[in-house]
# Entry
Amino acid sequence: MNVCPNPSLAKDKPKVSATGVTGLKGPGGVGWPRSLAETSLLFLSACLLISLVTWPWVAHLGSAVSTHWDVGLHAWKLNWNAQRILDGHWLVPSYHGNFYYPQAYTLALDDLFWVPSYFAALVLGLSHNAILTYNLTFLFFWALSSAFMYLLLRELDLGRASAVLGALAFCLLPYMASYYIEFNGELCFGIPLVLWLLLRFFKKPGLLIAILVAIAFWMQAVSALYYTTILGLTIPLVALPLLRERAELVRSLRFWLSSATSLVVVAGLSWLFLYPYLLLHNRMELERNVSEMALHSADALTYLRPCSGYVPHTATPWPILNIPAALTEAILWPGLVVVALALVYWYRFRWLPTPGDQALAGGGPAQVPLRWGRAVFLALFWAWCALATFTSPKIFGGDLGDTVLNVTILGVLGTSLAISLLPSHLSLRGRFVAGLTTAALLCFFISLGPNIRANGHQVLAQDWVVYFFSDAGVLGATRVLSRYAVLVLFALVVVAAIAFESLNLKRSVKLAALILALVFITLEADIAITNPYRPLTNYPDPALELFLSTQEPCTLMVLPIGNRILDSAHMLKVAGASPRRFLVNGWTGFQHVYAKHLSRLFSSGRWEGGLRVLGMLWPHPLIVVDREALGFFVHERGHKVSEQTLRQRTKLLFEDKAYAVFEPQYPPHPTLHYERRVRQDLLERAKAIHFWAREAGSDPQAPAWFYINDGVAARLALTPAWHEYNIKVVDPELCIPFNTLSLIVPPSSRRPLEVKDFHLVFK
# Structure
């Protein structure tokens, strides 16, 4: 006989609906939310609370941004995509962004932000304010994660109060609040969205809901790749337990056809939009190595620290104990309310053996040793890490640490997976939570990075899980593995909401408890703003914008070059959204080879070599001087090329208080090898290459070969007189990162040549 130790569980036993779908009794059910206003009100509440915890951000929505170096990149990308959408490119992004010239597909060097860009296009079209576009889109999609979380929790048959608590708790996690500095850190809306639709699909499979699951996954994939990888690891671990609960679906042709259609849709959409990412990954070897991942990982005790690498201690639940652990970009501590409710969930829904009990409600006899085993493995892992942290890490490291910690990891994951799949009457909610638990544990161990550490740096063991997924290519493009903690926190919020639902409180008392919990959650999320909100210096500059518009198409290099904060800002301030303005500067998490080379040349004073390398680019290059920044770099950091140097060596075209624009002079000069470099899409659109050339000697005819990359496009006979040439471009072999167009004297001739007025003629 099975005994339920908690009387409140008896009325929460699974029940079978008329449709044969197993679920828990509750107001949400399998239907849609009772009112769109309900979700909309929740969304507006999230916007309000976000504004409170990030104050004074909301006071500067139209004028200022955080001083973090990624802001320029993210604001530029939103405005670039938004402008392209307004120009009529509704479906596919313009991947050849106007920075890191002459690199192709630069939009694919970072998250695509394509779904947020539609909202950004609406704001930009109405406001014509790039800063407001960035900030409002940021706020909208941050709050959107709470709306989808609310829908998921309602689908799990939770009442309004519990769903509101979970939705706002997820939105205001210290993790989310501490990522106010980076737009892409808040783009995890797809996690609750996909899981909500997936749960609906298993309740009532159909073609439409299957396609919606695929589209939702695609929406996350074309917005932020980190969270897409996390979601990709999560879906199988959640879907398999749900399928186990509804085993009759295995015999349903409709289920399999719908599932196959979903896979085809998501694969097709993802391939269409993410193909440039694969192209760059294969051509440029952009895969992250494990040593880089190790710099951006947590250790186990980081989850107990309410601070991050950017946010200092604001409040600590451990006033006496200073926990030495790695500081990550975001706070991984879930918050006191979430932790307390998660403990309530464990206590009320635990399946632990007690005297006289053979098996408890919701689990069979076989699950008891598995649950004990998972608890023991997890306790051993935490105890090992804690002992190493507060004693001597050397004793707990080496081969012994490798063996103990990795065996416990595999034990935790193995037992958790078995629990989620074993025959029992867990209900869809129970299966969902069981699968989500396994996914959260997997992401927890991935977040620790390739090296399991103590004291923030002492290696205890090599993380076999991370190495496995790295070798399989799953983690190849990810660097900040601590972001995988978001699923751990997501799972804790889900069980916290369920625990709140299980509390036997009167309606008025429960409402008061909800308000009190939200107050504590908001207070704990109220972080210290370490990157203040400030207007971008020298932006906008209408005079510079007007002048540069008269020079297009043109290649721009802004001095100083090579500083990620300045380069990121110049993407927005100088390049802007103009597709005919090609900026050499840029920032996407790494520095491009071409920009790095120019940075070394100009900063070290080798300005002649810098001008020569810059002069290889087409269209004609201009040098934009950020006057205040270059002055600082010259006087404080030893930058060897000053504005005065450029005034002596180049032609001044424009100047105001903030900027000066110079044109390098490239008169024809005798050479055996004339070369220009262009981006892939420009050469692809060109119908001809135009230039004037002559043989610099006195021969009546001197041979020369015109190359497009490694292929000979034409053989010419040059004379001492200038002659005009138009070389047709017919199916050239295109290259990444850039294409080389060159006029070369064959070795047998050695007669120098001269070239002028070189440009591409477009179709």
User: Anything to note?
Assistant: The longest strand covers residues 686-695. The chain has 26 helices and 18 strands. Residues 253-284 form the longest helix (32 residues). Residues 1-31, 352-362 have pLDDT under 50 and may be disordered.
